[in-house]
Amino acid sequence: MNKSILITGANAGIGKETARQLALIEETELIYLACRNLEKAEIAKKELIEITGRDIFKIIVLDISKPDNVKQAVLQLYEPIDAVIMNAGGTGGKTPEKLTKDGVTELTASNLLGHVVLLDELILQNKLNNVALFASSEASRGIERVGIKRPDLKDNSVDEFVSIFDGSKFKGNFDAYQIYGWIKYGGTLWMSNMARKHPNIKFISMSPGGTRGTNGMNDLPFLKRIFLKHIGMKLIMPLMGMSHSVEKGAKRFVEGINNPKFKSGIFYASKEKVLTGQVIDQNSIWKDLGNHKFQNNADIAIHKFI
Asked: CATH number, domain at 193?
């Protein structure tokens, strides 16, 4: 069981709920709430203490979209942590296609690059003992029933992944709703490659499923956001097995780091036509996810921006 855990994006939604559930486990001794906004983090910490009755939360100011800030945040950890849950992300704000100073799109920065830097720094400084969990998504292998197409790569080469991460592959047709899945695909492959590079640590990619009550859709265009978040997720999608509560989504993360049945290097998510229920190895749905060459190429490509 992991005694100390760091969670990115922990002040709201599924990150906050994950912190709550972990705090209710007796063996959990310390939870770092890694958030970019100190004021919101302090409010979340106070609420979590009141809800759980446990004062085991510490705040780390961390903006996952800014690698330099991530590196500084890791320096605030004076003792190694047992687990890290890389949850922060979303659809990249109002300008998801805009390039950051590191050369990636804002969509890539918030969903992948910052977490790569975080994990690299934790390992480099010997500050991660047991397990790393990356919040992936069924979008990374396509969700046909909600109109998200499977990423259509030509050869999964290093250059092709670079073009995904810097947005040049999409040129004038940058649809963050679709490209989000491409970024998560690259991140999932990266995690599987990390598992082979560092066999002493467990690396899990886990989708929370179609989770209601998250902030991931807040940056979508107004009409699409209203339909998906307030109509689709709450009324239509539950009937289709396409959405569940934030509690169930967070439970996947909690079990992902604590349950030994989950194996390193594997991407776990819902069965093919739903976004709820039991999680399975996604390689059984799409063999590309288990391709070692593709995994290595994604890893090399994202590190070109660091």
From this structure: 3.40.50.720
